[in-house]
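Re: [ENG-882] Designed sequences occasionally contain unexpected residues at chain ends

Forwarding the minimal case from QA. Structure tokens:
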């Protein structure tokens, strides 16, 4: 009886870890586009409506980044999103230290690498270009 319970417990645990993982196709798409040298750290699921007025980035979260570590930020959108997902990273003084949007060219990059110069808590902000509506994922990976 004891062996039966142990075997049953192992099967349930194995089933949980095998089938309990996310099968979200957008997450899978982002993981694939991050590259094989990137180690997944965290993702942020973003769903925003069209903004009624222009302002700062509407989705914000705090993250801890470490000095001399290279991070890859990958942004993926659903097909029905109106704009491209944009990322800004600000430091403790609220100064933008990195962005996936090039102000000079007007181009938004879907994957960008950032080498942190100072350990600390940073705020990352996401929004869609022109503050359009959309759904997407912002993923953070560590580059080996």
């Amino acid at each position: 009886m004891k062996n039966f319970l142990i075997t049953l417990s192992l099967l349930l645990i194995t089933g949980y870890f095998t089938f309990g993982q996310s099968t979200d196709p957008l997450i899978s798409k982002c993981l694939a586009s991050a590259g094989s040298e990137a180690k997944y750290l965290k993702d942020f699921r973003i769903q925003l409506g069209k903004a009624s007025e222009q302002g700062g980035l509407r989705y914000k979260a705090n993250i801890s980044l470490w000095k001399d570590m290279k991070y890859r930020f990958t942004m993926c959108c659903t097909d029905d999103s109106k704009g491209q997902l944009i990322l800004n990273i600000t430091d403790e003084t609220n100064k933008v230290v990195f962005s996936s949007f090039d102000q000079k060219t007007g181009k938004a990059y879907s994957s960008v690498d950032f080498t942190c110069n100072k350990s600390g808590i940073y705020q990352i902000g996401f929004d869609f270009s022109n503050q359009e509506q959309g759904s997407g994922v912002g993923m953070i990976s560590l580059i080996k």
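QA comment: On inspection the terminal residues look reasonable. The helical segments are 2-19, 25-34. Proposing we downgrade this to a documentation issue.
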